[in-house]
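pls design
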């Protein structure tokens, strides 16, 4: 049972848990500590869950069998064999936990009547890199209070986020309002946000999976061209891995404008559906819920592709919707500059694909 392996503090997970807990709770009064007891237990559960999923996935990175398709998930995206390994392990670990509801990319929402916590889990964010044996894959878990009216929950309700790299030894953790902590190979590391504000020197990442290449390139073309010599553009295959690169200072920004494109132009939306085999495969809340909280607590600027907050976005997608655009930048000046470029790109998209709905 899940509680059997989740109840102790032995080994590196226990060391990490105790370190995180001491940092967040060390300044609290006894009353405040009592109030945080449930959160600390939840943190332990999430850290252990991440380790268990990593343990079953890591030996299968890059194996030919991991690339085989096994169906379609709740999101509409393809499910690979390596996904099924991770999803099954989550199911095994959380079975019988009446206090925890969970949502995963492939299973959707699994909830018991007495659930108090909701875990929004992407067992492998970066499935394709994982199947190929690359490092850009993570276990991502975001926690929020659970309520039966789960449609009312938003990304702003997430109070705990954990990202665990699968191939490498790196853990990123945050509590809303309590800061974030990064540990690389067991050692604490300070966030290293870039101070760069010049777009031609930008190192940045964006993804093409499930997005129509021609219109997306049209929107991003000036940014790609501007940074192609003095900086660099990368498609790392994982939103979570990309966002944590901003935290580490390896990247300056993560840009995902896909949902803004699909929302503003019906002809473009149809192209997204065509590429996605009938589904809009932009980022879902489970792709960014944990990483966005962690980045924000580290001091990065996090928004949608319009520059607005993600906090009001639904936490649990339903009816084929709930996708979000995402922009994570190391500093405010960079965020403003990229938003201007995105607005220019959307202007080019309008010229090519027509006026937005409701426009004259």
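designed seq:
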């Amino acid at each position: 049972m899940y509680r059997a392996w989740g109840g102790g503090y032995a080994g590196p997970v226990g060391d990490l848990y105790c370190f995180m807990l001491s940092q967040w709770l060390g300044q609290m009064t006894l009353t405040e500590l009592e109030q945080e007891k449930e959160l600390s237990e939840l943190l332990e559960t999430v850290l252990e869950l991440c380790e268990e999923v990593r343990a079953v996935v890591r030996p299968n990175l890059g194996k030919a069998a991991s690339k085989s398709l096994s169906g379609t998930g709740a999101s509409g995206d393809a499910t690979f064999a390596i996904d099924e390994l991770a999803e099954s392990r989550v199911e095994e670990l959380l079975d019988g936990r009446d206090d925890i509801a969970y949502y995963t990319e492939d299973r959707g929402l699994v909830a018991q009547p007495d659930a108090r916590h909701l875990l929004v889990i992407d067992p492998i964010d970066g499935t394709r890199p994982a199947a190929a044996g690359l490092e850009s894959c993570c276990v991502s878990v975001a926690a929020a209070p659970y309520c039966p009216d789960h449609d009312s929950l938003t990304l702003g309700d997430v109070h705990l986020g954990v990202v665990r790299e699968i191939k490498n030894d790196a853990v990123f953790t945050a509590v809303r309002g309590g800061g974030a902590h990064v540990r690389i190979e067991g050692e604490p590391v300070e966030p290293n946000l870039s101070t760069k504000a010049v777009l031609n020197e930008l190192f940045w990442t964006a993804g093409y999976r499930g997005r129509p290449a021609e219109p997306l390139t049209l929107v991003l073309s000036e940014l790609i061209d501007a940074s192609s010599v003095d900086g660099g553009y990368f498609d790392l295959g994982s939103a979570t891995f990309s966002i944590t690169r901003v935290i580490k200072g390896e990247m300056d920004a993560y840009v995902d404008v896909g949902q803004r494109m699909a929302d503003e132009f019906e002809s473009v939306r149809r192209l997204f559906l065509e590429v996605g085999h009938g589904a809009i495969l932009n980022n879902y809340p489970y792709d960014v819920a944990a990483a966005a909280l962690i980045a924000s607590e580290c001091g990065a600027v996090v928004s949608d592709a319009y520059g607005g907050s993600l906090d009001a976005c639904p936490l649990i997608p339903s009816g084929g919707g709930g996708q979000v655009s995402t922009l994570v930048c190391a500093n405010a000046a960079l965020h403003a500059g990229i938003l201007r470029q995105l607005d220019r790109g959307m202007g080019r998209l309008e010229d090519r694909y027509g006026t937005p709905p409701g426009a004259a």
